[in-house]
Amino acid sequence: MSATYLPAGLPIPVPEADGLDAPYWEGTRRGELRIQRCQDCRAWQWGPEWMCHRCRSLRMSWEQIAGRGRIYSWERAWHPVHGALKRHGPYIVVLVELPDYDNVRMIGNLLGDPHQAVTIGAKVEAAFESHDDTNPPYTLVHWTLRGDT
Amino acid sequence: MSPSRAERTLRGKVAVVGIGETTYYKHGQAPDPEVTLALRAIMAACNDAGISPLDIDGFASYSNDRNEPSRLAAALGLPELRFSNIQWGGGGGGGSAAVGNAAAAILSGMSDCVVVFRALAQGQFQRFGTASGARTVSGEQALTFPYGLFSPAQRFAMRVMRFLHENGLDPSVQRAIALASYHHAQQNPRAVMHGRPLTPEAYDASRWIVEPFRLYDCCLENDGAAALILMSAERAADMRQKPAYILGVAQGSEHRNGARAHNAPLYATSSFTTVAPHLYAMARVLPKDVDVVQSYENFTGGVLMSLVEHAFFKAAEAEDFLTFENLTAPKGRLPLNTSGGNLAECYMHGLELQIEAVRQIRGTSTNQVPDADVSMVCSGPMVTPVSSVIFGSEATLS
Q: ipTM higher than 0.90?
């Protein structure tokens, strides 16, 4: 079994040129899941933006969160559109809602059998997948079903 | 005194007076460079309108069209260029907006004769449905591409999956939309899928591209170009063709639709929930008045959501409403995508849908709806901004 959910050769994520999401990518390297939080109104925010969508403050900070959520939507991709996925077979992408953090949603693969039945609402937790041998190295956040459902 | 909002309207002020298309090709098979396709479509639209290309003084397009108005104006030898406009946003969301932007330029006096155009030669550039060869990605792409979330089908599948879940619908509810498009294409000799009918059995047996989309839920990818000529209603009345008047047009999307990484609060929408009411208000039309609809099919699930958001039926009624009989011309309750559209005529990025909507008003569609006076186009589902337009015959102006 491959060490990573999807085969090697997919695009390498790097922080945006203006540095907006650099704290996220630095955090995943350390096994920390971090999202934005407004220092003024305390709203959680994801995806990253320079301004708080709720109070329009520009004082956004990054806080570590617990990677626990529930599946909000999902898809099973069969047709490969990238060379690295040719002959790989299906894989599952999930959109995970985090009720403890203003219901922000995060994207990842659902680890495990790519043919498994997926239930919207199922509880999941974050799983870190390191890619240490790429240039630059990076760490992805995936999701895995939680045992306490 | 400035006009009130009710007085600020495009209703009946501007009309489409010419339509033109190139031959529609499979992707990569156009014999001409993309800019030549654009010029051919514009010339065809001028011929249809009975005007000289020298009468054009404005251009409007969308979705990052590569053919700049300044180049086109120079190629055509226009005496002057007065309006050049492109609608922000990708996909087909700008198709109706480009018509609206052109009409606004005419109504405001900035331009007298605007051509709305779109040209695509995907074989000469990158196909929409393939991933680029980029080694690194950042921003939104960094949060999606490494998970195998690349193509438009992959980008939108989770929105449709959520919509199906919230409304207790099975993916098979999408089937009749595909069947109607393929059926209409069989009467349309311009259609890439002319002579290639689709049966329910073939639909059901087709492979998943990405659940909940099967092969036939997905649009084609094609090469070609299309163009429409717009003028003031006053001038349109003297032109060769029966005018298709703009009754209403609206563009945009709801609250934070563009929130990154799939964080739109109203996720399970096609982005029309706030746009459609503006459309109907300007057009002074109700859903029941609409005779025929062209609804952009990137994916059939997006059409389903577009029709719900334009209030033709409620989501819970989708299984009953979306039948082959209801969606097909001439007698269906709501004939849909009567040229074959993006699924079966040509993926002309939805501009072929504008042209078909005009044909329905003229009475010249190959799948004509009898006495079509009110003809709608919904452009773009699930992207942002989206847009919609309603065309009317002269009878709707009184």
A: yes
